[in-house]
Amino acid sequence: MPRPPRIRSCTGIEHIMLRGVNKQNIFLENSDRRKFLRCVMNALEKSGAILHVYCLMNNHVHLLIQKGNEPLGETVKRFAVSYVFYFNKKYERVGHLFQGRYRSIPVENEGGYLRVVRYILQNPVKAGICSHASDYQWSNYRSLGTNDGFTDSTLVKKIAEIEYVFEYVNKAVNDEETEEIEGGHVPEKEVVQIMKEVSGTQSAELFLQLDGATMLKNVKIMNKRGCKYRQIANALGISMYRLDRIRGLR
Questions:
Q1: 211, 214, 213, 215: which is closest to 235 by C-alpha?
Q2: Residue 141, CA distances (Å) to 8, 71, 109, 145, 161 in order
Q3: Which CATH fold topology does 13-180 show?
Q4: Quick one: pLDDT at residue 25?
Q5: Taking Cα atoms as reference points, which of 20, 13, 14, 68 lies closest to residue 46?
Q6: Domain coordinates in residue numbering, the chain
Q7: Are 50 and 152 in contact (CB under 8 A)?
Q8: Largest CA distance in the chain
Q9: Mean pLDDT of 170-196
Q10: Does the pLDDT at position 175 exceed 80?
Q11: Is the pTM of this model over 0.85?
C-alpha cells in the first residue's frame, strides 16, 4: 500500500520528529549531538530553511522548522543522511539509524505554534531527565528570544512578550495536548471496533457497566493500540472529566 501524502502546513512551519530504529539511541556521546546540530545547520544554510526550536533526546529529536527554497522533506533528508553517514562510520555499523521516514505535524496558527514550542522544550522534563527545561543542555530553551545565530526567535517575539512565552513554556503539558501534538491516532471509525474487541462488549453502554478495574484495563489497552484518550471518550459518549475519573486522575 502506498504511503499517504504528507499534510503540508500553510505557514511552512512543521514539527519534525526523528526516532531511532527500534527506539535505539541515536546519540551515544555529546560529540554526536554536536555533529547532528552541525548537519542541521549545514542543511539550513543550503536550503534557506529556518530552525525555530529544537530538542535532542537520547533516541529521538524534535525540530520546529520553517521551509526554505526547497521542499522541507529535502532539507530533512540533507541533515538526516549526513548524520547517518557520520554515525555509521564512527561506530562501524551499517543500515538504517532512524525509524522509517520522519514524522511531521503542520503548525497552522499562533496558538498551535506556542503549544508545540512548549511540548518540544518540555520533553526532557516530561521524561524525568531534569526538573526544569532550563537545566537541559541540548535544546534552545536558554537562547529562546535571542539571536544565537542558529535558531530564529523572531516569530516567538512577534506572538507574545518573551516573559509570557517563558511562563507559558514552563507549564506542564497534559496528556490531551501531547496526543494533539504527536498526532498519529487511529481513524475515528476504528475506535469503536477496537473498543469492542478489547472489552468483549458490543456497545458503549455495556462497556460502561463493567467494573472500574476492568474499564481502566481496557482503556489502557485501547490507548496502547493507538486510540487517543479523547477518541476513547468520544466513542464511549462521555466527557474527558469522566474518562479521567476512570483513569484515576480525578
A1: 215
A2: 26, 27, 21, 9, 15
A3: Alpha-Beta Plaits (3.30.70)
A4: 96
A5: 68
A6: 13-180, 185-246
A7: yes
A8: 60
A9: 74
A10: no
A11: no
